[in-house]
Amino acid sequence: MSKWIFPFALCFLVSCDPGNVKSNVLDPKSELGLSLQLGIGSSIPFECGMNPANNSIVGKLDQIDLDCNLPLDSREFKEKFQRENPKLEWKEGIWRTDASVSIKIANLSSDQSVPIKLSSILSRTGRTLTNTDRQVIINNNLPSVELVGYEPLLDYSFFSNRYWDLEFNEPISELDLPLLTGSIAPKVRLRSIVQLETRKYRLFFETISLNNSPGTLNLEFSKGKDSAGNSIQRTFQIKFIGLTEGPNLVSERSSPFVFHLANGSVVAINGRNKFNANQSEILRVGQSSFQVLASILYPAILGQTATLLNDESILLVGGQDLVDSATATIHNRAELLNPNTDNLTILPNLTFPRTYHSATLLADGRVLIAGGIVSFTSTVAALSGLQPFASTNRTLLYDPNSKTFSDGPNMSVGRSHQCAIRLNDGRVWLAGGFSRIISAMLETTEFYNPSSNSFSAGPLLPIPNSLFNCTLLGDGNVILSPGTEILSSNSIFLFDVKANKVTLLPALRFGRMASALAVGQDDSFLLFGGGATNIANQATRLIEKFDYKKSNVFLDLGFDLEPRTFFSPVRLSNGSIFLIGGQASDGSTSRKTYFYGPRPTSN
Question: How much is the pTM?
Answer without folding.
Answer: 0.70
